[in-house]
Amino acid sequence: MGSIITFHIKHLTHTLIFLLPYFLCAYCPNNSIISPPISPPLHIPPIPKFLDHRLREVYPIIQAFKNLITSDPFNVTSSWVGSDICNYTGFYCAHPPNNQSATALASIDFNGFGLVAPTLDGFINQLPDIAIFHANSNKFSGTIPPKLATLPFLYELDLSDNNFSGAFPPHIFHMNRLSFLDIRYNFFTGSVPPQLFLKNLDVLFLNNNKFTLKLPENLGSTPALYLTLANNKFTGSIPRSIGKASSTLTEVLLLNNWLSGCLPYELGFLKELKVFDASNNHLTGPLPISLGCLEKLEQLNLSRNLLYGKVPEVLCALGNLVKLSLSNNYFTKVGTLCGKLIESGVLEVKNNCIRDLPDQRSKVECIMFFSDTRSCPRPSTFDIIPCNVTPTSNNPPARPKRISLAYTAFVRHRLL
Ligand SMILES: *[C@@H]1O[C@H](CO)[C@@H](O)[C@H](O)[C@H]1NC(C)=O
Ligand SMILES: *[C@@H]1O[C@H](CO)[C@@H](O)[C@H](O)[C@H]1NC(C)=O
Ligand SMILES: *[C@@H]1O[C@H](CO)[C@@H](O)[C@H](O)[C@H]1NC(C)=O
Ligand SMILES: *[C@@H]1O[C@H](CO)[C@@H](O)[C@H](O)[C@H]1NC(C)=O
Ligand SMILES: *[C@@H]1O[C@H](CO)[C@@H](O)[C@H](O)[C@H]1NC(C)=O
Ligand SMILES: *[C@@H]1O[C@H](CO)[C@@H](O)[C@H](O)[C@H]1NC(C)=O
């Protein structure tokens, strides 16, 4: 008995200081005799109790950030009080990988909160256990804090639709676990360092910024499944190296940039490719017939370029095609299979130079275009088909409407 009491006293000294008068009172004839004249100290614990020391350490950092916030339209920060950090709106706790019995602040989801703050510096970079940081559709400004690179667990960073500016944050290269990077809809300028395409990312969304960059030769080194570079000022041609991403690249959006040059036949190596959109650029040349190897292809949009020649029948034979947009180019010919796709609405060829089809460019326009000599490097590659094209059946499979993850990158507010 005595030893048990000693144990408790040793471990609960702090609590006992407050409870001692009540224990003594149990032996008093009347409690009021020794009631203190002021209200009992039980109601005002001097230090909030934290579930874990890791939470105690991030508490002042969160409170300091809260003070920086100048607008909070949904009043979320009103819940950021007290020691129960895991219950703050937008904050989530979990057991950190380096100690399964600890509880740490593991992820933050501020998506759509509309918070306004001049910087995240001093906040996110000081949360050592953070693994996921989502802040879509807020108005955070400034540049991305360099110390992010020191966070050992961070693997998802979504700063999309904010007010960040400045150059591409180079410290992102040092974030070893990062697999999801979404910085679309900001005001980043300047070039994107080519090393970015060596990072082990699954998802890379850079669309709707002001990046300028000649697409680097190593583009195809990216292991990303979803690559969205649309609505920037990327220049240069689509590098041949893209074929190296044959077992990963699934959706590629390059639309609304300043890309030029001819399509590399190595595009035909991308056996996982489902969506490819390079519309509204300055791409030229014929379509490589290697595109007929893209068996999983569902959507191909090359409209609003300077492409010409015949639309390859092997491309129109692909069984999973849902949409093939080639309008506003200078194509001159379609075969029987492609003709069928025009009829079924899958293939769009408006405003080209195809005789006998409606809605084509004027003769003069077409003659003008072809009066310039046009050629591509490696002309023989345009006729190589690097796969066994399976003979097409007369009854192509029903073409389902599919959902593209990459196109959701054009929705400012995240729906994922
Ligand atoms: C004991 O406390 C009650 C009220 O809590 C009071 O009415 C009573 O007079 C007290 N008795 C003594 C002996 O002080
Ligand atoms: C914010 O929430 C707190 C607590 O829920 C409430 O007391 C306060 O009035 C709210 N403020 C606004 C502006 O809605
Ligand atoms: C979490 O916070 C809500 C109010 O925001 C409160 O009603 C609830 O009791 C809290 N839960 C815990 C476990 O503290
Ligand atoms: C793991 O976390 C718990 C709770 O914070 C702590 O008591 C324990 O000492 C930690 N273990 C190690 C090995 O750090
Ligand atoms: C957005 O950032 C610019 C600086 O790049 C700043 O002048 C402006 O006030 C910021 N807007 C908001 C809403 O914070
Ligand atoms: C193809 O791209 C053009 C230009 O970017 C766009 O207007 C059109 O809607 C796209 N077509 C499809 C089917 O996505």
Give a quick precis of the structure.
With 416 residues, this protein is an alpha/beta fold. The chain has helices at residues 2-11, 13-25, 53-68, 313-316, 336-343, 363-371, and strands spanning 91-94, 104-109, 116-117, 132-134, 139-142, 156-158, 163-166, 180-182, 187-190, 203-205, 210-214, 226-228, 233-236, 251-253, 258-262, 275-277, 282-285, 299-301, 306-311, 323-325, 330-334, 347-348.
Give keywords.
416 residues, alpha/beta, Leucine-rich repeat, LRR (right-handed beta-alpha superhelix), 12-stranded mixed beta sheet, 6 helices, elongated, binds 2-acetamido-2-deoxy-beta-D-glucopyranose
Note poorly predicted spans: 1-36
The CATH superfamily of the largest domain appears as: Ribonuclease Inhibitor
Bound molecules: 2-acetamido-2-deoxy-beta-D-glucopyranose
Radius of gyration: 30 Å
Alpha plus pi helix count? 6
CATH class category name of the largest domain:
Alpha Beta
Order of SSEs, N→C?
HHHEEEEEEEEEEEEEEEEEEEHEEHEH
Explain the layout of strands and helices.
Layout: H1 2-11, H2 13-25, H3 53-68, E1 91-94, E2 104-109, E3 116-117, E4 132-134, E5 139-142, E6 156-158, E7 163-166, E8 180-182, E9 187-190, E10 203-205, E11 210-214, E12 226-228, E13 233-236, E14 251-253, E15 258-262, E16 275-277, E17 282-285, E18 299-301, E19 306-311, H4 313-316, E20 323-325, E21 330-334, H5 336-343, E22 347-348, H6 363-371
Parallel strand pairs: 2-4, 3-5, 4-6, 5-7, 6-8, 7-9, 8-10, 9-11, 10-12, 11-13, 12-14, 13-15, 14-16, 15-17, 16-18, 17-19, 18-20, 19-21, 20-22
Antiparallel strand pairs: 1-2
The chain binds 2-acetamido-2-deoxy-beta-D-glucopyranose (NAG) (6 copies).
One 2-acetamido-2-deoxy-beta-D-glucopyranose binds next to loops.
